[in-house]
Amino acid sequence: MTAKNMYWVTMTDKFLSGWGCAKDKINKLVMSCDTFEEAEIVAENAHNRSDMRYINIVYSKPYYNKQHYFTSYHGKTEVDYEHWFIKDWFKNG
To answer: Structural domain tally of the chain?
Structure first.
């Protein structure tokens, strides 16, 4: 049995950085995707939001230094995150 390919979209949430759970830290949002096409949709949706910066698609699960980053991992089956996987969901206009 072979391991399933996964893709991850990483981004910095500039709005939530520095307070709440991310007090004095950078808030990183990481979305797990089953396909590269899914990752492209999530990345494009992130680009359509003014609160997201440093958006990347990576091929292995990223980990960040807990002293400097608050990291949350999410997927398409989670409530409040399923819309990230719908093409043009956050598109302005």
So the answer is: 1
Burial (Cβ within 10 Å: 0-12, 13-18, ≥19) of residue 77: exposed
Residue matched to tokens 């949002």:
29
pLDDT tens digits, 24-73: 999 999 999 999 999 999 999 999 999 999 999 999 999 999 999 999 99
Q: Can you give the pTM of this predicted structure?
A: 0.89
Six-digit token string for 63: 């980990």
- In 1-93, where do the E strands start and end? 7-13, 26-33, 52-58, 69-74
> Which tokens belong to 17?
């950085």
Residue 93 lies in a domain: no
Residue 1 lies in a domain: no
Structure tokens that stand for 25 in this block: 């830290």
